[in-house]
Amino acid sequence: MPIISVFNPKGGSGKSTTSLVIASELATIGAQVAMIDGDPNTNLYRWAEKRGMPVIDTRFHPTENVRDASTLLDTQLGEAKFVALKNSDVSELPNWIDACDGRYAFTLLDPEGTANDWASLAVTMSDLVIVPLRPAPMDADQMLRAVKLIEAQGRALRRPIPFRLLFTCNGAVVTRDERQIREFVAGKGHPVFKTSLYERAAYRAMFSRRETLSEIPGTEVSNIGAARRNAAELVGELIETLKTIQEVAA
Predict the structure, then answer these.
(1) More confident residue, 202 or 141
(2) Residue 50 CB: number of other CB atoms within 10 A?
(3) pTM of the model
(4) Would 82 disulfide with which of 27, 77, 128, 196, CB 3.0-4.6 Å?
(5) Under 8 Å CB-to-CB from 118, ≥6 apart: which residues?
């Protein structure tokens, strides 16, 4: 079952938006999804909690091993298909990741926007790391930090950790900065999602309304149809990317 991290050591890269769009879209098409929120801002966890989804704050449920975590998933979350966990204890994180991996079709990890131990472990345990990248020079510098960390973790494991860059917060018009960054990334040979996550009011509305894109009425948020199509295209490409990674690994 794929474990996906959304990681960038710079705040404001669109990390939480990317995480929520992907997780909620996967859930909307019927997949079983667990979100593990390691960001102190707890955007994903609060979104889930406020809308009444099954959640676990792992601070109140210590675990010694994967079996403990699996039992807690059973007792606390039941048969729910879309859930959220809040975790800040890196020593217990592997228990929760492995437990979710054995229970849900997708486990999505949202680290803090910094290169800390939690983020490093999340990257190490991931089948795919998504690096959100705003089309701005400062963000390109931080993207390079993220890629170097991913590659270093892969060397430590003696296997490459698959990653993809994802342009976020794009406008309708390709700016000079974006064009130059895309050329730079192509020169480096870094893999990039063909789909970008565009700047949409609907993505902000997901957080404020505590709703998925499919739940937001089209009459209340502008361009909701375009946002839904954008999210569907991204998740479709993500699924195909994961299939390719699994085929290569086999």
Answers:
(1) 202
(2) 12
(3) 0.94
(4) 27
(5) 38, 88, 90, 93, 111, 112
